[in-house]
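Thought: the user wants the 3D structure for the chain below. I'll pass the sequence to the structure tool as-is, report back what it returns, then summarize two notable features.
Action: structure_tool
Action Input:
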Amino acid sequence: MTKLMEKAFKTASKLPVLDQNILAKWLLEELKSDRKWEEVFADSEYLLDDMADEALEERKKGKVKSLDFNRL
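Observation:
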């Protein structure tokens, strides 16, 4: 465990029990959410590659126009 994490836990251990439980629940939910996003992005890498290839192919065929960002 890092020094910063130790300091955070030491500081949190001085909080009232209810606040410690709220903080612990929040931290666990954040970690769980981060893992879910990592899985979603890892699984979508190939899908995004396929979509990009499809978009480039449609552009080559003239089915789509490039955006002129200077006009926006």
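Final Answer: Structure generated. The helical segments are 3-12, 17-60. The chain has two helices and no strands.
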